[in-house]
Write a structure and sequence with these properties.
Elements (H helix, E strand, L loop, with lengths): L1 H23 L5 H10 L4 H14 L7 H46 L1 H10 L5 H9 L5 H10 L4 H23 L5 H6 L3
Helix pairs in contact: 2-3, 3-4, 4-5, 4-7, 4-8, 6-8
């Protein structure tokens, strides 16, 4: 009975998050988000941190938009700090949700042996591959945070992967939003 109750709770939470994303997606526009942040006044940085966390957890907002918005509104220094806080917190929360809800569930579904194989894949220095995956554009970084928790990746390997992979990518987007970096030139190899 406990197993089914756990499965139902996880499914209910997933359904709630998907429902929020579906209902919110049509209403999320740049002008609305910018208005929300500007209207928050001194609380604006906390609003951006909250948007970044929400973007990671329920994803109705494109992942590149919030860091660019932080750069536009707060510049290269404050914007970078704001996004680092939001990215680290959001990634950590996704990882914790994956570990708390997903690890017991995935162990039941695919077995301890398969989970151990997945853990071994990211064991040792192989966790650096996760950092490289985070660095690549258009990778499902948010989902990867959940999955890393679900397979029981050690926090001591996950956190550096986020700091070496996710954070630099988001910082580059903030700098682009602040007008200090042109991403098209970065991709083409021209300064």
């Amino acid at each position: 009975m406990s197993r089914w109750r756990h499965v139902l709770i996880v499914l209910a939470v997933l359904a709630l998050l998907v429902g929020i994303a579906v209902l919110a997606a049509p209403h999320v526009t740049r002008s609305r988000l910018e208005g929300l942040v500007r209207g928050a006044g001194a609380w604006g940085p906390l609003a951006v941190i909250g948007l970044q966390i929400a973007q990671i957890l329920i994803a109705p907002i494109p992942g590149v938009f919030v860091p660019i918005l932080a750069g536009v509104l707060y510049g290269p220094v404050a914007g970078v700090v704001i996004i680092i806080v939001g990215t680290v917190l959001g990634s950590g929360i996704a990882f914790a949700i994956g570990r708390r809800a997903g690890l017991p569930l995935i162990r039941r579904w695919i077995g301890d042996r398969n989970v151990e194989k997945a853990q071994n894949l990211v064991g040792g220095r192989r966790w650096l591959a996760l950092a490289l995956i985070f660095l690549l554009p258009f990778t499902p970084s948010d989902a990867i945070c959940f999955v890393a928790g679900m397979i029981g990746m050690k926090t001591g390997r996950f956190a550096p992967a986020v700091l070496l992979g996710r954070v630099p990518k988001d910082v580059a987007l903030v700098l682009a939003g602040a007008g200090l970096l042109r991403l098209g030139n970065l991709v083409s190899g021209h300064p």
